[in-house]
Amino acid sequence: MMFGDLTRNDKLLFLGFTIAALAMPLLAWPVGANYPDLLQKFAIYGIFAIGFNILFGLTGYLSFGHAAFLGVGSYAAVWMFKGVTMNVIPAVIFGVMVSGLFAALIGFVSLRRSGIYFSILTLAFAQMSYNLAYSVLTPITNGETGLQLRQDDARILDRMFVEQTEGLPSTNLFGLEMSGYPGFYFCCVLLIVAFFIALRIQRSPFGMMLRAIKTNQVRMNYTGFNTRPYALTAFIISGMYAGLAGSLLAVTDPLAGAERMQWTASGEVVLMTILGGAGTLVGPILGAGLIKYFENIFSSYNDSLLAESFSFLPDFLNDALVFVIGPFVGEGWSLLLGIVFMAIVIFLPGGLMEGLARIHGWYRGRGQGDAGRNVAKQAAE
Amino acid sequence: MDVILLQLLNGLDKGGAYALIALGLTIIFGTLGVVNFAHGALFMLGAFCAVSVQALLTISKKVKDESIKFFDAYKEIPYLEAWWGDTGAMIIDYAVPISILIAIPLMLLIGLGMERGLIRYFYKRPHAEQILVTFGLAIVVQELIKAQFGANPIPTPAPEVIAGSANVGLWVGLGESVVYPWWRLIYLAFAGVVIALAFAFLNLTTYGMVVRAGMADRETVGLLGINIQRRFTIVFGMAAVIAGLAGVMYTPILPPDYHMGMDFLVLSFVVVVVGGMGSLGGAVLAGFMLGILQSFASMNEVKSILPGIDQIIIYLIAVVILLVRPRGLLGRKGVMES
Amino acid sequence: MAILEVKDVNKAFGGLKALNAVNLSVEEGTVHAIIGPNGAGKSTLLNCFVGRLIPDTGSVIFNGRSLLGIKPHEINQTGVARVFQTPEIFTDLSILENVMIPAFAKVDGSFRINAWKTVGTRGEVRDMAEKVLEEVGLQEKRDIIASSLSRGDKRRLEMAMCLVQDPKLLLLDEPTAGMSRADTNNTVDLLQRVGTHITKIVIEHDMHVVFSLADHISVLAQGTVIAGGKPEDIKGNPKVQEAYLGGRTHECRNGETGRNGSGAVRGRLFLLPGAAELLRRELYRSGRQLRCEAGRDPGIAGPERRRQDVDAAYHRAHGRSATA
Known about the structure:
The complex is a heterotrimer of chains A (381), B (338) and C (324). By secondary structure, chain B is mostly helical. Chain B has a single domain (2-58, 95-324), classed as ABC transporter involved in vitamin B12 uptake, BtuC (Orthogonal Bundle), CATH 1.10.3470. Chain B has helices at 2-32, 39-57, 79-84, 86-93, 95-117, 127-149, 168-171, 182-204, 206-216, 218-223, 228-250, 260-275, 280-297, 300-305, 309-324, and strands at residues 60-64, 74-78, 165-166, 180-181. A two-stranded antiparallel ribbon of chain B has the order 1-2. The longest helix of chain B is centred in the N-terminal third of the chain and has 31 residues, at 2-32. Chain C has helices spanning 42-50, 72-77, 95-108, 123-136, 151-163, 181-193, 207-213, 231-236, 238-245, 273-285, 307-318; strands at 2-13, 16-27, 31-35, 57-62, 65-66, 80-83, 169-173, 199-203, 216-221, 224-229, 258-259, 264-265. In chain C, helix 3 crosses helix 4 (123-136) and helix 3 runs parallel beside helix 5 (151-163). Chains in contact: A-B, A-C, B-C. At the A-B interface, helix 6, helix 13 and helix 17 of A face helix 6, helix 12 and helix 15 of B.
């Protein structure tokens, strides 16, 4: 029953995705992104974006506070490390559960409104959580410093069964340390699982209802559906995905800070989803990967590095290029991000997947007219 | 008693800024039906107007410092001072008031450009896309400012004449314990005047009346052969000016940095929602109300009973309002109620 | 046996009485047409059946159960489906999906998390949908996106979405509004052919449609049922002639809420008090009255308009002169 009822195309899609995910170090090698820290980020933010897409792309609710669930997942996971064990399994489960509960609470209130009101409500809740994490909740969040591991943490289970060593312990999967490539593959397996679940949701009657809610909520009500629990379920699932991503951030680097919950972070996941293509399965992951990749590249550059990499050019060309590109690298990375964001919303609201589909449709000679685009859009999903 | 008065003044101050930004937001939403996430950026641009004017006025030349004899020392003297002596120094001192005059046409231009160049293509697109594109614009503006002026707050003091504090306590017979900076009082008065002007314009002139008619039923006004589009564009420019002025005036209170727009935007949105989307009076009322509530919530006496309340009070109120009375305090019935 | 029993339903909007002691009884298995001039309260009445509006007083009993105060989706689950005046369909989804969704509502109920098995495993639902699509003649187009359908096809699709639920009662709000003669005939044909056992309530202006479909006609005017009976009886009823078929022009004095010969006039547009005042003054001064069809808004606002402009605007909006 796991795969049997999927169509041949979906099986191929999943197979392809699995292979691509597992071979990510190889695929990322030509572009110089094949080091574990970055690969981990690809996988983690991929999960975050898949989850966000279930709410935004599928159900049509634009949440501007999704980073709150990411943050909560991180805090929960770090607390599990501190209190119980450095083994990652309980931490991940705990992170997902806590953010799921948190999402249920916030979703229950926020989903009483739709449209822009929903966006502002989620934004308000996220800012509230962010402010609280910085102030009153300091005993839980450790305020501005962020929650970190300490030598004298309780770690009840570890103290019972594992011999204590000098220095801070590291996160592990039954002894296998979760840094470097093992850490990446742990995230990668979870990414594949997350993708598989999203695929099943999207192809299920439940997913069909979510898409219908996005298209015409009024019709849904008069068709005999109670739409609110559907949307709430989507919200919770999506919050759990964010919690999973958050706890994985803690797995690969066991600390949690409130800045993860800030609304700019929520904006980032919106951008990832839009960039890749909201409503598509692969798009959000693509968007997350691209943004994390370029963030990594561009933000590490500065003018002198830039000049160095164009040193094969004549001097005046080199200077000109540095002058043009300079403002967008290093600190200016966010500027580029903002421009890309605007460009995507203005010219390609369907994201890269729509772009690919259009090229595909054009290539097959039916790029003209709406009908062709619709066919292409379907193909993209 | 004096503590309460002080907190009230503090709250009115912040409330003034909220009200001014929220007023523009709600005008734009009411007329154009656009949710403008870049409105905070306009506030920030206003503030950086003042910063730029100050920077321009203080362009300096290096001169040898004659007072130091042991080695060649140089000091920087603004050209203005070098040319006109004390008069020049006074002009520099008045950088903030001067920038108000410059901010008005500049912000109007920016507003018009923004509406013609970007916003108008999004009238018919879904709210989500409006939010996203203006959000992107806000990031771009913010990052440009950061690239130009750096990430640190830039102090832009008020003129020296009014640098001190007013003895507000004496005025109302509460003794000398209540002192309040002059500039903040001026800010408050300024906010009041701008709000009054905006209301007078919208309520007393036929031009404003047509705009309000358009807010109520845009199609019909269009049917009358009025070019409502042009008026809305101008209204957008006005909203930009209001936000910009709020920013200029706020600089002596809070040294501007590149993310101040975002900080105020989120709160101003909450203000608009609490006041009622599209309701001008609601925006002003809610702006002052939330400013005052926030100010009282940050009193130690309150915080000791409800820890952290100062951080979340505004959001908490917004949540309650949205759930209990979704159209907001003064919102028109049926607007945005699902 | 009566499947729908409406007793003494009243509904007022502010000072305007939209429904005034409406009594109606719909027999099971019949087609019941509700006719009446614009603004007579037909749509208001229909909205009271599906939970969009709650009447001020009175009762609506469907199949022995009160429909008042329960949510639209619950009403649908008791077996009431509705076709809207402007088709409400899922424009981004394919035709087949559009019809499968209501089928799922019928089979799985109002909420069920069936997120693990694919839609493909639910052959029975697909069969239901395909069967109905065949009946309405859309099976050829089942894989295209609904937004690309023609207007007539959208109506047919919405009809299919209701039929697939096999409702006990089907409400049709002007099913042929804005259709060409050929499309209208197709729709009539479809309604006579498909789901013949389903009780239907039809709101309709096209008398040809009404008389070819209805077993029973109720005439609504000023929010009250002024006549009811078999089509033959209605045709000859002088009250109906006067209220509906006679085609009198109605007058609205000052552009605000007012009443007239047969229907109520609602002034949606004069939202600015100043604007309404100016307009009224202008119209009085000129000694003329604003004349408009009952229930239709003249479409005028704005403070600085002269009468000629008012005329011109009205003319542009409605294709004829506003003042007489």
